[in-house]
Here is the input.
Amino acid sequence: MKSEPSRSKFGVDVLNDALRRQRRRRSRMTASTVHYRVGNGDMHLVEIEGGRKLLIDINVRQPGPDVPDVITQLRKRLKRDAEDRLFVDGFLLTHPDQDHCRGLKEHFHLGPPETWSKAADKIIIREMWSSPIVFRRASRDHQLCDDANAWACEARRRVKRFRERGVGPDGERVIIMGEDVDGKTDDLGPILVKADGEFSRICGVTGRFTARLIAPMPASDDDEDEFLSKNNSSVIIGLALEADGDPDASRFLFGGDAEVGIWEKVWDRNKSRKHVLEYDVLIAPHHCSWRSLSWDSWSDYGEGAEVSEDARSALGQARSGAEILASSKQIKDDADDPPCIRAKREYKDIVAPQNGTFACIADRSGTDPYEIEVTYAGHKPKRPTVAATVAVATGIGATPLPHG
Here is the structure.
């Protein structure tokens, strides 16, 4: 009787191992980002590997022929909890301008989770990411809109609850971005992220990402009066997203509407550690505005406007194959700012040496959002691409997906 042939480790076992690895990869939700077409505004959904979802700003306008129904697009991507409530795990408001929070009151539940109404069916915010510093600076410059006031009121309610009862459950959570002056945030240790701080938790659970708070930076009241009150400060945050076991598969840099003075201070604080500002995807701040790159007004100086080398350096730490996205209306060669044609040229110059790309979300055909899939280097995108893919050799995994 012939003995049963042994299975070579280089034969059937290897094939089975490969199939098991493939099944494990398919069973995981890969990381991706979704960038909504909102004109001169911001609305981005970060889908962390494992399923957690972080919303960054919103600008929900009345849908029309040229205005996508972004809230419906968002709702289709969200899950419902055990009580049948749509939810986002986290919501970061970079700053309280209307084009970053429009639609908050109408579409998101504010108040204790138990007061949620099925009839209204609003979206639950499990964890707010908010900066009191940005709100205070903004309120010095202009009156806050109703949605911004509603956000501030809800953030204060959640902070008050934390002070009284400790860290709350989902729907009551809040993370404070940046230390306030005069010790106003000294007692918020468990829910406070300081400038330069890194964290990887969302809703109290460690996620497959690392976030670094770059701004707002600590400042004295004198410093604010002399400098920061002249600029629309924003939360600036870097996100490193994990994919297929690589904790640094792709880095994203979000800067809200931070203007040139803020970026100069960011560079001064980080020029000896440039890696902090490196990115694979940059959302061009202030909707591709020239005011993030120069002190000179585009309308006054035109092509004679001078770029701030420090601000450009802060925004210029592109990694190989990087992409810069403008969340704006279409960029034309005119006097508009934002978006500004000169800023677009500067950003294209930044990514050119890195074989990178620049894209304006408004230039996409159709009304679907602009999507980026994050994969481990060497993995092929799940769908054919419509733009240059990131080279396998770079170790970066940001690949635009088709739309329409």
The longest helix spans residues 146-165.
